[in-house]
Design brief:
The structure holds two protein chains of two kinds.
Chain A (H helix, E strand, L loop, with lengths): L1 H15 L25 E12 L2 E12 L3 E5 L6 H8 L9 E9 L2 E2 L7 H7 E4 L11 H10 L6 H14 L3 H4 L12 H13 L5 E5 L7 H14 L4 E5 L3 H7 L2 E6 L2 E7 H6 L4 H7 L5
Parallel strand pairs in A: 3-8, 3-9, 6-7, 7-8
Antiparallel strand pairs in A: 1-2, 1-4, 4-5, 9-10
Helix pairs in contact in A: 4-5, 4-7, 5-7, 7-8
Chain B lengths: L1 H40 L5 H5 L13 H31 L5 H14 L3 H16 L4 H25 L3 H9 L4 H29 L3 H4 L19 H9 L4 H28 L9
The chains are: A alpha/beta, B mainly alpha.
Chain lengths: 291, 283
């Protein structure tokens, strides 16, 4: 009798095996595409950006326009320069000892390297969330959220209280921690820690949020919570997210950029990149022929 | 086959036993030292000893209270000199001194300084402070001890601040916090338990030094009245009594040594408690 069941099972499975063939595109869930994105202002612009780590060149002449209040996903195989590119956007690239950089990056209409723009000021307007959640271990949840403000001189308790509630609500963490704000920041679960880091970044009133593989270290449920969060944040902030996960890129972004070996290969609306890419390399990557 | 297995098992067990014996032999000198000092010094250890001044030979009572207070004074003065310099130098070396030549020479100097014989440090302090001031003082003694604290504190602070994960610094920079603020408020705060341990260990080390005090703080049979006077210290007092020809004083020397030993062990024990596990910092 067991043999009969196994036979039936095998036959059922044969029917639903997906067809793989040349030119076959896979069905992927794609985020809501809005019409008229070309009319939006350009929030950040990378102009002929080249970057080196010592002698090794990591980015080759990247030109990219990031429009405001949109989510742009940067995808590509490991080592293609995605993280290096976004670290240039908030001037974190220069913190590495052997780093070199040519080209320009504009925030709004001003270059972030102009003498008026101190790196500290740039980083307050362009925030970053890292792959591994890093709440400051000796600080409580409350202190973690306001640390960006406190260390820049804001002391008024009422202001800080308001900011804590606002940021934690924006990060969809308020309901879970509102009764234990004095608990150590490092005592939360991985997903909660990452949302705490997002709340911490939001508390400094930034304009652009860079996310470097924010969900790589999280379980699927926390990942979906963070993705929902990105959907909500999009209404007020410009977001650039680097991700390994193509399905995630398709789900959350309006624009997608594909990078390979330090070069920007294609940068277009997400729907187009995933269903009808212009460049063959993009198509190869998307259909899984490499990477 | 069976013979080889048994041989290996036997060899294994013999090695474990030998290692255990070696560890035991290493512990014997320490344990016997503690036991002997305890045995010799315990019978005179009482409240009188800890609270009264030295008395002339043959007079009952008498203790080393001024010496204990003197050691505390000297350690305080030494900390004011040694700790700020040591901790700040350690922070500089780990935060700003990765590749430059200056940092390399600072590290080299600290290593050399930690190897300088303590009596040489004492003579230097004598020339720098005692001679111009024309008197022995706790200030001179404290400075001599402070010179000895600097290299220990520098190296421990550097090692511990280096252990703070780089991701914490990056997270702080990404929030738009300046470098010095990041160091003060985030990095040091994360490393503070370790730094405190380094401080306690260097205090324990200098509390037991005798040579530098011989010509800086000298000795004193009375209560310390300020930093500008010769001051008694447990170590020098023990030395003075031990080489005297009087049995009564020799007994007191043993008790003084016991008190010193307990003090140093207590500080070391507190330091270990504070910083049980470096991994905790990386959670």
């Amino acid at each position: 009798m067991i043999d009969e069941v196994a036979e039936k099972d095998k036959q059922a499975r044969k029917k639903v095996e997906p067809k793989t063939g040349k030119g076959e595109t896979r069905k992927i869930e794609v985020a809501h595409q809005e019409p008229g994105t070309e009319n939006k202002a350009v929030k950040m612009k990378a102009d002929d950006v080249c970057a080196w780590f010592g002698e090794k060149q990591a980015l080759f002449s990247v030109n990219m326009d990031i429009r405001e209040k949109e989510v742009t996903a940067i995808i590509g195989p490991s080592g293609c320069g995605k993280s290096t590119l976004i670290r240039c956007f908030n001037r974190m690239h220069e913190t590495v000892a052997s780093a070199k950089f040519t080209g320009d990056i504009l925030l709004g209409s001003e270059s972030i390297f102009s003498p008026k723009m101190d790196p500290v000021v740039v980083r307050r307007r362009v925030g970053m969330v890292f792959q591994k959640p890093t709440p400051f271990p000796t600080l409580s949840i409350y202190d973690n959220v306001v640390v960006g403000l406190r260390l820049n001189g804001v002391r008024d308790k009422k202001t800080l209280d308001e900011v804590v509630e606002k940021s934690l609500r924006k990060a969809a963490l308020w309901e879970e921690v509102k009764d234990s704000l004095q608990k150590a920041g490092a005592a939360l679960s991985g997903g909660q820690q990452q949302r705490l880091c997002i709340a911490r970044a939001l508390a400094v009133e930034l304009e652009v949020l860079l996310m470097d593989e924010p969900c790589s270290a999280l379980d699927p449920i926390s990942t979906s919570k963070v993705e929902e969060l990105i959907h909500e944040l999009r209404q007020n902030y410009t977001i650039i997210i680097v991700t390994h996960n193509m399905q995630q890129a398709a789900r959350v972004s309006q624009k997608t950029a594909f990078m390979l070996n330090g070069k920007l290969i294609e940068h277009d609306a997400t729907e187009k990149v995933f269903t009808n890419p212009s460049n063959k390399l993009t198509e190869d990557y998307i259909t899984g022929r490499f990477g | 086959m069976p013979d080889y297995q048994t041989y290996r098992r036997l060899l294994d067990r013999t090695m474990v036993v030998l290692c255990g014996l070696a560890a035991l032999f290493a512990a014997i000198p320490l344990v016997s030292l503690l036991a002997y000092v305890l045995f010799q010094g315990f019978h005179r250890l009482d409240w009188t000893f800890l609270t009264s001044l030295p008395t002339p030979v043959g007079v009952a009572g008498g203790g080393m209270a001024n010496a204990i207070l003197g050691t505390v004074t000297l350690v305080l003065v030494a900390s004011c000199v040694g700790l700020p310099i040591g901790i700040l130098a350690g922070i500089y070396l780990s935060e700003y001194g990765k590749k430059n030549k200056f940092a390399w020479s600072v590290r080299f100097t600290a290593d050399v300084l930690s190897g300088v014989p303590s009596i040489v440090t004492g003579i230097v302090a004598y020339t720098l402070i005692v001679k111009p001031m024309h008197n022995f003082s706790a200030l001179a003694g404290g400075v001599a001890l402070g010179f000895m604290m600097i290299p220990i504190t520098t190296r421990t602070t550097e090692e511990l601040v280096k252990m703070v994960p780089h991701s914490i610094r990056e997270a702080s920079w990404a929030l738009g916090v300046s470098q010095w603020r990041t160091i003060l408020s985030i990095v040091i705060r994360t490393a503070k338990n370790g730094i405190l341990t380094g401080v306690l260990l260097s205090i324990a080390r200098i509390a037991g030094e005798t040579a530098p005090l011989l010509f800086t703080a000298f000795n004193n049979q009375f209560w310390p009245k300020g930093v500008n006077e010769p001051t008694a210290s447990l170590t020098v007092q023990v030395f003075t009594y031990a080489i005297s020809p009087f049995k009564d004083w020799q007994d007191q020397a043993w008790t003084g040594a016991l008190v010193l030993l307990i003090l140093v062990l207590a500080i070391n024990g507190t330091a270990k408690l504070f910083f049980k596990n470096p991994r905790e910092m990386l959670r």
